[in-house]
Amino acid sequence: MITGTILYTWIFGERVGRDEAGNRYYRRRGGARRRANNGREQRWVMYEGEREASRVPPEWHEWLHHTSDTPPVEMPRPRPQWRKPHQPNLTGTREAYYPPGHVLGGGKRAPATGDYEPWRPQ
Q1: 62 secondary structure, DSSP code
Q2: Distance from C-alpha of 25 to C-alpha of 44, rounded to nearest angstrom
Q3: Residue 76: Cβ-neighbour burial (10 angstroms; 0-12, 13-18, 19+)
Q4: pTM of the model
Q5: CA terminus-to-terminus distance, the chain
Q6: Would you tell me how many other CB atoms lie within 10 Å of the CB of residue 9?
Q7: Would you say 25 and 45 are in contact if contact means Cβ atoms under 8 Å apart?
Q8: Is the separation of the CB atoms in 100 and 110 below 8 Å?
Q9: What's the rounded Cα separation, in Å, for the pair 98 and 21?
Q10: Please, how many CA atoms are within 13 Å of residue 56, restricted to the half-sphere of its CB?
């Protein structure tokens, strides 16, 4: 974490909650008296580990971007059974998805089936 952000959080931050990945969420101390961002409350996240925005779960993203006024810890919503657990963007990591035949996924493509006809100009 950046030292300036840690210091700013220590002086001005009020801890709101923590998600299952260990990220901590803050708002500026003082509530309605201290406003920024066009009159909206200032909110931020302190990441646990790598600073990657895709690690913020949807319910906390909603609160950070002022779509919801109440943090998920104050008013938790039931998770729909069809929703998968939150997973950060894995592009560029070893866990990234590579389709069959991709060079980084083994490089073996299925043989052509013979149903392909290339376009030929007349």
Answers
A1: H
A2: 6
A3: exposed
A4: 0.71
A5: 63
A6: 17
A7: yes
A8: yes
A9: 25
A10: 19
| CA 104 to the chain's CA centroid | 25
- Residues 42-99: tens digit of each pLDDT: 899 999 988 888 989 989 999 999 998 889 988 888 888 898 888 889 888 888 888 8
> Going by C-beta distance under 8 Å and a sequence separation of 6 or more, which residues neighbour residue 53?
none
Q: Which residue has the tokens 């906390």?
A: 60
Q: Which amino acid is at 30?
A: G
All residues at 6 or more sequence positions from 16 whose CB lies less than 8 Å from its CB, including other chains = 25, 26, 27, 43, 63, 71, 73
CB 1 within 8 A of CB 47: yes
Q: What is the pLDDT of residue 32?
A: 55
